[in-house]
């Protein structure tokens, strides 16, 4: 593996079968020390659709999402965002080549991510949180950033909370600000890592509704979630991860329909109280 300048952009992928892949994961493994957490993942996340990544605790869902966001480096394998390699590109000898930091930054900036924890700046208002990266990273004028930021807060139903500080907002509202903050950077793909996991049950609905709206607007979403009801009703693709392997990848009907894969059936039984009943 060697550090090189960015590879020349690939020939247009428009004619290839992968043309509609917003994210293409090929042969990704991830090891932490001696422990293999991802054991060779191939996944295509289609453009303009919602893909839900489900699976038991510890199966590697967050790790896969973090590899896609390049917050973790896959041990082997490659990831492309709309045909552009992120971090590593396939080398002619079948290995991979590390790309330049500039290339990594450029491709990463096309991905938005929402975490379980909201990670808002406590000393900034909701609008300040949404605008910060627009001003400091995208070099937008403050007034322009605020106009764009207000539009994003409206999108998540929080225009009337723009001047509130995080401590004055509920957990659900804070997470919606975090979503607006990610949307403000106009990402091509939005990654969600269990966005409702730290919320009280009565607050999860408002966040899931915002995500449902985004899905309905044709945005590309990849969502790690234990909300099986959401996955079954909003997800157009379901990927089921188990012990670091992608056991199932298909439409909700293909994945949840009978006969069910025994590991999925076992997993769903565990989560039946979390909305899986809505599946059948
Ligand atoms: N930085 C790390 N160092 C060592 N091990 C890690 C690290 N991050 C994750 N792991 C391990 O990798 C495995 C998969 O973790 P991961 O968080 O990806 O699973 P998950 O499916 O998202 O689980 P959950 O649903 O509980 O969030 C776990 O055994 C975890 O302990």
Automatic annotation (TrEMBL):
Keywords: Amino-acid transport, ATP-binding, Cell membrane, Membrane, Nucleotide-binding, Transport. SUPFAM superfamilies: P-loop containing nucleoside triphosphate hydrolases. It is found in: Cell membrane. It is a peripheral membrane protein. Residues 23-268 form the ABC transporter domain. The keyword Oxidoreductase does not apply. GO terms for molecular function: ATP binding. Belongs to the ABC transporter superfamily. This is Amino acid ABC transporter ATP-binding protein. It comes from Jiella sonneratiae.
């Amino acid at each position: 593996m060697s550090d090189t300048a960015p590879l020349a952009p690939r020939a247009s992928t428009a004619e290839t079968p992968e043309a509609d892949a917003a994210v293409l994961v090929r042969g990704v493994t991830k090891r932490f020390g001696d422990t293999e957490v991802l054991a060779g993942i191939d996944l295509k996340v289609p453009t303009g659709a919602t893909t839900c990544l489900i699976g038991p605790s510890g199966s590697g869902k967050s790790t896969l999402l973090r590899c896609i966001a390049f917050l973790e480096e896959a041990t082997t394998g490659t990831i492309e965002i709309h045909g552009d390699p992120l971090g590593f590109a396939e080398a002619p000898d079948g290995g991979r080549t590390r790309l330049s930091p500039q290339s990594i930054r450029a491709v990463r900036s096309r991905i938005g991510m929402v975490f379980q924890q909201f990670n808002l700046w406590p000393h900034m208002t909701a609008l300040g949180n949404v605008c910060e990266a627009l001003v400091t990273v995208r070099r937008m004028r403050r007034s322009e950033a605020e106009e764009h930021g207000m539009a994003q807060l409206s999108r998540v139903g929080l225009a009337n909370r723009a001047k509130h500080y995080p401590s004055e907002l509920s957990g659900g509202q804070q997470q919606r600000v975090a979503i607006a903050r990610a949307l403000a950077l106009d990402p091509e793909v939005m990654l969600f890592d269990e966005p409702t996991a730290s919320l009280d049950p009565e607050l999860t609905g408002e966040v899931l509704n915002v995500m449902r709206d985004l899905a309905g607007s044709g945005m590309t979403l990849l969502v790690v979630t234990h909300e099986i009801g959401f996955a079954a009703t909003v997800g157009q693709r379901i990927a089921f991860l188990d012990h670091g392997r992608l056991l199932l990848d298909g439409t909700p009907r293909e994945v949840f329909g009978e006969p069910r894969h025994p590991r999925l059936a076992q997993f769903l039984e565990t989560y039946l109280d979390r909305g899986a009943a809505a599946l059948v």
